[in-house]
Amino acid sequence: MQIILSRKGFDTQYGGQTSPIMPDGTLLSLPIPAKNESLKFSDLKFRGKTYLEIIKELNPNTKIKDNYTCHLDPDLRNDAIKREIGWLPIFGQTGCAQGHLSGKGIKEGDLFLFFGSFKETEFVNSILKYKRNAPDLHLIFGYFQIGSIYSDISKLPKELQYHPHAQKRFKEDKNNCIYKAAETLSLSTSHKGAGCLCFHNNLILTKNGYSKSRWELPEIFRDIEISYHSQKSFKEDYFQSAAKGQEFIINENGNVTNWATKLIVNGTKA
Questions:
Q1: What is the pTM of this model?
Q2: Are 262 and 114 in contact (CB under 8 A)?
């Protein structure tokens, strides 16, 4: 099994702020703004609030307007929008990033670990706010084991045809691809094949006290190939993650698979 660290969601460049670690530990990844999409931030909901309302609470000066649309990808939360019967989490990729995935032989059964920029939040007088002086962190917020791969979007099941990468502007890209999640996780069959994680410290990639792109990876990673990185990425006391690139592919390794399994199991406990 190959594991892919996949960068997704809001950051200071795409969205103008970080996604929230909610007070209860929910990792709410905010999808990036994008033109010509069918879904608005106001269409997406989390526990009775729209994503637009959450964004505005966290950042009253946000540049995200009421009519802004977003690129809901990966789409992991069942209750974010109304679903067709048979829906499973879905993820799309295109361009150079998809070329990188296909060039590395990503296949059914491989595992995406989605990471992004997050910050702790709290309620102040019932208003959601970022915690003062809380650092911006890279952390893993979701997982997705590949169940099916659709490079011919015309064969996409009806319940998945809403996805951005099934629309005209992506369908015409010869390198466009959509991934549907497995129904169950092969690493732990009591778990769904894809989902969002709840915060625990081992999901944090950023080394404590360092800027968010400087990570603390377990020692097992030192002798493993990670695409877009080299042995020079391992500094004296941190791992320097690549500034560019969305999909960082980790060569098959049993120790890394065990590491990923523990992250998922500990992040999905009731």
A1: 0.96
A2: no
